[in-house]
C-alpha cells in the first residue's frame, strides 16, 4: 500500500501515537525495537561510506511492510539530509507537522530541489482531514537504488537460469557471488570445476551453489553438435565443424539457451559484441516480425528511469528498422514497469525543420504510429521538446508524447552511443545494458570495460527478459 504511505516529520510523540488506526509507523533509523537501523549503526555505515547499503536495506524493509499496511515513515531529526534521501528513494510525499520554523524551511526548500513534494501542516487534526489530498501530491520518482531493488524482486519472481561463459574473468565470479547470495537467479558457469573453485577461493568467494559445466567435456556435446548441424547445414556447415564449434564457450552457452537448459546468457566481458551475438543470430534467431536486433540502455537518472535505443548494434537503420527499434524498445520499457511514451529524435521538432534527415524520421514515425504504438509515439522531436514539459508546451503543445517521453529513439548508432555515454559520464546516471532486443530468447552483451555491478544488473535484466519473452 505504498500509495497510501507518507514520510512524517514531527517533534511531538503524541502525533505518532494518535495516528489513524489504519496507519502503521515505520522507523528507518531509531533506537526503538523494530527500527531498520539503530542510530549508532546508521552512523557507522555512513562513516564507512556505506550509505547505499543503508538505503537499500530501508527500501527492502519498507517494501515488505507496505504490502499489507499504509505506513507513516517517521523521520529521525538527527539525520536531516538523510531523511530527504530516504523519502526520495521510497518515493513518498513529506508531511511536516513540526512547529520548528527551521525544519519547515529546510525541508520545503531542499525537498523540492530533489523533486519531492512537501506539505506543512499545523497539527494531527489537519493531517487527518487533509491526508487524502496530501497523498495526491506524490511524485513519480524512481531512483537508481529503488530501481535496482525492483530488479532483484522481478528477477526472483522470474525464477530464471542464466549461463555465464566467461568464468576466467574475476569480475564474472564476483558478480556470480553477489547474485547467488541474493538468491535472485540460478546460474551456470562454464569452465573447469577445479579452476573455478581455485579462483573463487583465491578471491574469497562462495560459489558452492553454482552449477559448473566444462564446455570441452560434458553430456550435451553430441546433442548440441547434431542440433547445430541441422540448423546450419543449409548454409554449408558440416557435422565436423558443428562438433568443433559447440566446444567454443560462446556457442555452447548459446546452445544451452536454444535447447532450454538455460533461460538466457550474459557474455562480453572479454569477447566482442560480434562474437556474442553471431551464435545467437544463427540459432536462437529473431522474433517473427522483427527486422533487426537492437541494443537499448535503461538510463537510471536521479529521479526517473528512461530507455535509450539503439546504442549498440545497428549503425544506420532504415526507416523500417528504426520503427521496429521503437516497437522493441516500447516492449522493453513495459517489461521493466514503465508506461512507454516514445520520442523519435531529430534536430528538428514537428514541422520546424526540413531536409532528408528530418523526412527520414517523419517516415519512420509514421510507420511506428501505424503499428500497435499508435499515439504513444511521436516525432520528429528534439531532445528538449521530448523531455521537458515547459519546452514541449512551446514547441509541440498538442503532442501526447512531447515533454512526457521516457523512451528515446536515436536516428543512428553514432547518436545513440555518444549520447548514452555522455549522459552516463557527465550526470552520474547508471546505464544498464545494452539490452539486446528482438531475439526469441535473451542473450545480452557486456562492455569489456564493465564493472561488477554492471554484470550483476545485466544478469538481473536477462532473468527478467526470460520470463517476459
Helix content: 40-55%
Return residue spans where pLDDT drops below 50 for at least 5 consecutive residues.
none
CATH class of the largest domain: Alpha Beta
Number of helices: 19
C-alpha Rg (nearest Å): 25 Å
Q: Residue-averaged pLDDT, rounded?
A: 91
Number of domains: 3
Q: Please list the strands of the largest sheet in the order they lie side by side.
A: 13-12-14-11-10-15
> What global shape is seen?
flat
Write the CATH architecture name of the largest domain.
3-Layer(aba) Sandwich
CATH names the topology of the largest domain as: Rossmann fold
Strand tally, please? 16
> What is the terminal-to-terminal distance?
29 Å
SSE-based structural type: alpha/beta
Which percent band covers the strand fraction? 5-15%
Largest sheet: 6 strands, mixed
Protein name: Phosphate acetyltransferase
EC number: 2.3.1.8
Organism: Campylobacter sputorum subsp. sputorum
Keywords: Acyltransferase, Transferase
